Amino acid sequence: MNENQTPQEEMEDVNHLVQIRKEKLNKLKEEGKNPFNITKFNRTHTSKQIVDHYEELEGKDVTIAGRIMAKRIMGKASFCHIQDSEGKIQSYVSINELGVESYKQFKEDDIGDIIGITGFVFKTKTGEISIHAKEVTLLSKSLRPLPEKFHGLKDTDLRYRQRYLDLIVNPEVKDTFLKRTKILQEVKNILNEKGYLEVETPILNVIAGGANARPFITHHNTLDIDMYLRIANELFLKRLIVGGFDKVYEMGKMFRNEGMDIKHNPEFTNIELYAAYQDYHDMMNITEEIITRVAKNVLGTTTITYQGQEIDLTPSWKRISMIEAIKEQTGIDFNTIETDEEALEIAKKINVEIDSLKITRGEIINQVFEAKVEDTLVQPTFIYDYPVEVSPLTKRKPSDPRLTERFELFIGGREYANAYSELNDPIDQYERFKKQVEAREKGDEEANMMDDDFINALEYGMPPTGGLGIGIDRLVMLLTDSASIRDVLLFPTMKPLA
Questions:
Q1: Domain assignment of residue 329, yes or no
Q2: Does residue 112 belong to any structural domain of this protein?
Q3: Domain that residue 205 falls in
Q4: In 388-464, beta strands by DSSP E
């Protein structure tokens, strides 16, 4: 295989190599040496443990296992590098130690095969920590050749489709996913310390609620009803606040049947948390604390670089209302604009294209913000006091009922968190749901559905409550300097190959 081959020629070469490897496997089976019959192999150390503890392990026997990534056959002695979950290590293999038959078998082993090695630890003349093999065991036969080392696995589409191959050939990719796990654990640790209770809510819903999004639809055969994969877990978590839990959170998968790009995947990980007797200012504080502490504990710093931009996560972050942010960027003060018609005219003057289904003053304010301000918010910034028209689940601002006590967090021109002083007035909530239903009837597939049971729950009384949602995938992207959401998902959604 080489870079000058056509795809057809490369496929023919691969098929030829696969056939050769299958023939080797058949020969092993005929000799009673089928590696797939081995059910267990007892390792004593990993590659990293041997390197880290060389002084105490020098001269002692160890047993490791991993994938052959390189081989140098030199007559009666050879070297190979094997890769395990923690790194690579070299092994010296000779006919004198293994014997004729075992050494012959080792020479037949292919790059990609998984082997076990028992031997003593030493350093070569060049100072490389290695294992002098006394025994080599073939544990699994790789029937497909790995990509050629000189050009590696660079095709991002193939890397996402075959993540297992990506992890083999580009082991540095593992670092992103190790950090992802640490980030998730740290977020949970912080909330657990603060007395939040982790709970689980349904993924299959009879109503798609809690966000403005287009849902995935499925059908339950026994009940003979259509159901939806959840677009958010908000309404169930707030039911738990009604029921008497003071602090709850859930981290899990959400599903939205919408566009795909570097920031969006149809299924994504989100965390939502709710605290009784708190408001959106408290949610700003905990958002800042969570992200700052996670950065410190996982990366060791609050100054990061994301896609070439230096970002300082050190508290305290900028806080500014949406209307003030628009004024700061454009000079336009929407506090002086009272009607839908005036707002629409202003948007036209500054060349903001307005969605024909969203032409109220509040909706236009939001669209102007998205067009003129959002991309400019590089350093962490809380944008608060959103129009009521785009915040159907949020408590109105007492000083201006056209606005709500809601904020979103922006870093590097992207949204990372969304939070409210939660609407707990069942009468107001019912009226806002009605407006959302009207929007759906006019063609807005992302508008909320009517949730009568949630209204029923609110009628029993929900205390003043602060709620927060953080996009975990985007947070991982930020803290690992990953350009695309697909880089932080082990198995992103991909269109099947024809």
A1: no
A2: yes
A3: 173-317+379-488
A4: 396-397, 400-411, 414-421
